[in-house]
Write a structure and sequence with these properties.
- Helices cover 47% and strands 24% of the residues.
- With 627 residues, the chain is an alpha+beta fold.
- A hairpin with a 2-residue loop joins strand 15 and strand 16.
- Helix 8 runs antiparallel to helix 12, helix 9 packs antiparallel against helix 11 and helix 13 runs antiparallel to helix 15.
- The chain starts with a strand and ends with a helix.
Length: 627
């Protein structure tokens, strides 16, 4: 539109839709648009504050002649400036990227990136946030110009619990906040910004193959208006940094894995060197504590036979050995640890308020409880703690899992060896006891004495509270002689159709009851008995009695006890038959002697060799000599 604004410039400008005119107001205004390449880039104007008729047609023609040339010149100058600026930015990015691309050492890369970030952004502070491997948590791994307290606020933070972090990680654009004290997005962090002393903030995500791995942050002490060139520079810089950090992390992780493998080999050799449970537990807890810089490392063995925990060893920098021993019973009674062992799940304590007494006993604020797994079964539990909210990093957790998996095998081998060694000792003791009993009863012909020896041996070798021997003396009844941790006693005869004894007498089979309360045939003879082992005494293919043992402990009798009791019953049968035979012979001799003594005829018995065997009193009287 050609022409000038004269007189009431404000009113005329308003008619043209121009309202934002700042004082002072001119009396005459002439303006020509600057158009370059069909794009308006500005205006070429003159103003007079003294003469309302200052400009005429000649002035308009002059400005119209100058405007196209000025527009092109200004456009070219602007383009040149932009090219020069881009060139400077590219050079600057090339220089700083060359610095952090010269090394693959992760710590060095982070240091150089943080410094370069301040250099290209003009900010006073910078930070690098990296997500863990699982992308669930994030850490401030390096900062320049930031306080230690500020950096400590951003350790092991769950991304899904902090919408701001999640938004940054997902956003492909640079996020800018000119003033954190007025921007609603910083509502929950203003106090921290005020303490740290920054007002402006910008973040740009780090990503590799569209997978976010973290983000960069720059902090300005004053309110900062972000220009498009700054935003573009930060975006380009973050792309270069993403590759550098990803490569450095890959090398770092590879080196760490190699180090972990080396440590695992060392630990495996150390644990394999022993088959003693206590030594393996001590080596494992000490190695874990020293390798991972722990304040506490404790190993508990899971005892399948009674679904309980047995402490093997504890390494602690926070409580004394005496306090450690005092803490053991508390741990063994912990319902949560037993539940953890049965549920095979890693937990970080305190899980509930009930766990606080366990932590108090151990002298720590938090504990990571990890089950030791072997063939999908729990072999034990490791309790780990140090002065760190996360306790273990992902990499450390993987290392511990691998080590504990191997340790579970070693502990199980040691447990089996211990059982075998114990069983061998028990078997040797059994054989010695059997040999001792054989020596004793082989010379005995008195039945009560034989039975007393048998029940005493059964009581001693099985650890029972009651051992008794029952023989069928009357038709349909078994008479018992037993020992109840003390004096020998004789019980009344028991009907053959009654209780476990009747079952064994009729079937001739061994009966082992880990819990007598669960068997309806059990008939209590003495109070508080909880388990029973009843073995038949066989002679000539017939059950002539039973050897019965009972205990006040649940599941008190093992397969080793069954083997011993069976052998003892076999030898007892021989001794009982021998004693009964001797008893029968003695009875027959006594009857024959009574007959000979009562007859008036003299009688002399001579064997095949002509030797005198026996003579009655009548013969001695007739011969008038003592025969």
């Amino acid at each position: 539109m050609r022409g000038t604004l004269k007189g009431d410039v404000l009113a005329q400008a308003a008619q043209l839709g121009i309202t934002d005119i700042q004082a002072p107001i001119p009396l005459c205004y002439l303006g020509i648009p600057l158009i370059a390449y069909n794009q308006v880039i500005g205006t070429l104007s003159v103003e007079s504050f003294t003469d309302p008729n200052a400009y005429g047609t000649n002035d308009i023609n002059l400005l119209e002649t100058l405007a196209p040339q000025a527009a092109v010149s200004l456009r070219n100058t602007d383009l040149y400036g932009r090219v020069a600026g881009i060139t400077r930015e590219i050079t600057q990015l090339s220089d700083v990227s060359a610095e952090f691309n010269q090394t693959l050492d992760l710590d060095e890369v982070l240091r150089k990136v943080s410094q370069a970030l301040i250099k290209i952004s003009g900010a006073e502070r910078s930070a690098i946030f990296l997500a863990n491997d699982d992308n669930h948590t994030i850490n401030l791994v390096y900062g320049s110009g930031l306080s230690a307290d500020y950096m400590a606020q951003f350790r092991h933070l769950a991304i899904d619990e902090h919408p701001g972090f999640e938004r940054i990680m997902r956003s492909p654009r640079v996020i800018t906040i000119s003033d954190v004290q007025t921007d609603e997005r910083m509502m929950g962090w203003r106090w921290l910004a005020e303490i740290e002393g920054f007002r402006g903030l910008a973040t740009t995500r780090l990503h590799v193959h569209e997978q976010p791995i973290g983000f960069l942050a720059v902090y300005y002490e004053q309110v900062h208006i972000f220009q498009p060139t700054e935003i573009g520079l930060l975006s380009t810089f973050s792309n270069q940094v993403s590759v550098a950090i990803a490569n450095a992390r890959l090398l770092h992780e590879t080196q760490q894995r190699a180090e972990d493998v080396s440590q695992l080999v060392t630990a495996a050799r150390m644990l394999t060197a022993s088959l003693d449970l206590a030594q393996i537990g001590a080596k494992l807890s000490t190695y874990l504590a020293e390798t991972l810089n722990l304040d506490l490392a404790m190993v508990l063995l899971w005892k399948r036979e009674y679904a309980g925990l047995q402490p093997l060893d504890i390494f602690s920098n926070v409580i004394s050995n005496q306090a450690s021993e005092a803490a053991a019973p508390i741990l063994l009674e912990s319902p949560l640890l037993k539940k953890l062992a049965e549920g095979q799940q890693t937990l970080q304590l305190p899980h509930t308020t009930d766990d606080l007494y366990v932590l108090e006993a151990l002298g720590v604020q938090t504990v990571l409880a990890i089950p030791l797994m072997l063939h999908s079964e729990t072999a034990g539990i490791a309790l780990l703690s140090r002065n760190d909210p996360g306790v273990l990093s992902d990499r450390e957790h993987q290392f511990v899992d691998a080590l504990l998996s191997h340790a579970a095998t070693m502990l199980d081998n040691a447990r089996l060896f211990s059982l075998i060694d114990h069983e061998l000792d028990a078997r040797v003791n059994q054989l010695v006891m059997i040999e001792h009993i054989l020596r004793n009863i082989s010379t005995l012909v008195d039945l009560p004495t034989v039975i007393a020896e048998v029940v005493t041996a059964a009581l001693t070798m099985t650890g029972a509270d009651l051992a008794s021997c029952g023989l069928e003396t009357l038709p349909g009844h078994v008479a018992f002689t037993g020992r109840l941790q003390g004096a020998l006693h004789t019980a009344e005869a028991v009907p053959l159709n009654r209780g476990i004894v009747g079952q064994v007498m009729s079937s001739g089979q061994i009966v082992l009851l880990p819990d007598v309360r669960k068997n309806p045939h059990y008939v209590p003879t003495f109070a508080n008995m909880l388990s029973e082992l009843c073995v038949p005494i066989m002679s000539g293919g017939k059950t002539i009695g039973v050897l019965n043992m009972e205990s006040s402990r649940l599941d008190a009798f093992t397969t080793s006890h069954v083997s011993f009791a069976t052998t003892l019953a076999e030898h007892a049968a021989i001794a009982i038959d021998k004693a009964r035979l001797f008893q029968d012979l003695r009875s027959t001799n006594e009857k024959m002697q009574a007959i000979l003594n009562s007859t008036r005829d003299g009688m002399i018995l001579i064997d095949d060799d002509g030797r005198l065997v026996q003579a009655n009193p009548a013969a001695e009287k007739l011969l008038n000599r003592r025969l």
